[in-house]
Amino acid sequence: MRILQISHGIYPLSQAGTEIYTTELAHALIRKGIEVTVAIPASERTSEAISCGKLPTFVVPIERAPAGRFGNKLRYATFRGPLWQDELRLLLERIRPDVIHIQHAIGFGASLFEWLEQFRLPLVITVPDYWLLCPGILRECDGNMSRCARHCCADLRCAKSGYLASLAYAAAHRRRIKRFVARSRPHLAAISNKTKLIFESEGFPRELICLHPWGIDVQALRHSSRQNSERPALTRIGYLGSMRAHKGCHVLAEAFLQSQPIAASLHFYGGGDDAYIQALKQQFSDPGILFHGRFDHGAIREILAGIDIAVIPSIWEESYCLVAQEALAAQKIVIASNTGGLSDRIVHGVNGFLVPPNDAEALSHEISRIVPQWQHISKTLDYDLGLLDIGDDANNWISVYETAIASRQSRSD
Known about the structure:
By secondary structure, the chain is an alpha/beta fold. The protein has helices spanning about 15-30, 45-50, 80-95, 110-115, 145-150, 165-185, 195-200, 220-225, 250-260, 275-285, 300-305, 320-330, 340-345, 360-370, 375-380, 390-410; strands at about 1-5, 35-40, 60, 100, 125, 185-190, 210, 235-240, 265-270, 290-295, 310, 335, 355. The chain starts with a strand and ends with a helix.
């Protein structure tokens, strides 16, 4: 079986959840004898990675703008569409995939879906966030078109033309995706039950949406967690991931200060919004709060081995959160916001603990309760609950691909 995956990025060029997962899934599928190619938008970073031998061999960068002196200025001009379409067409002709699996299309735009229809190939689309519904990805508008135009589209080019232009863009984006789904009937794979329910509530056909959580390398994380037997005097509370306002880092820092005095230290690992991070450092300049900066995902095992409690304080509708899974695999106590996909993965008091989102007082109470007895609590939790190994996940995807192939064949007959 030959699979073409399309993503807006890949690890190690990018280190968000979709990019990391796309890389790990490709490796897992290849180990099972599946031929995998991953197409991503080309950039200066991809060229550097290729020259340094850091880009996985299954990755094919697709140019979106002409090379040369004026390439960047023409990126969104008339050459943009024909260039990436020509390159992607050549790739399709060369590898002749049995299935096209779109992990995320934001790097190419919504026109990618419509362009792919001409090839009449089975299509599988992962739904890792809410970009298909909301141009702002996070869906902080909660489906309200007016708020979407004013808030979610604020950083897009259409916002420069005013509210009505943003409203028209947001409505057209949603309408365009829905029409494509109605015509092509792709298999949609939602990574959490909450994500699935939201898409169903927005009118996407239920029969096309399956629940498909992401897998991770469970055994590797579990093995590494046993390597660190040191027990420092302070309980180590850790946050790992992108540091942005919607991730709730400020809520965690405030909760940590409210929980004092406790024998614990708080460690932030990650980069993101530089202005936001700088504001955090200024507001929470406490010796017990340490900012370690950006890290490579390749070091996730060592970082998890060095903490005792992992906190995911998201205040947005977190669609999944790989870090929660990785922390469970490493047998770390997880305290997470009771929102989105986190509510699917964490069962309060069974494999972790849930608190209301954006509630520093509730989070502080949970930290104060757990820290003094964390070693006892850690022995009572069922860390296997909800975990999915990447090998089993690859088998599940193969079943999805086979179903998509059979469905396309039946429609063609």
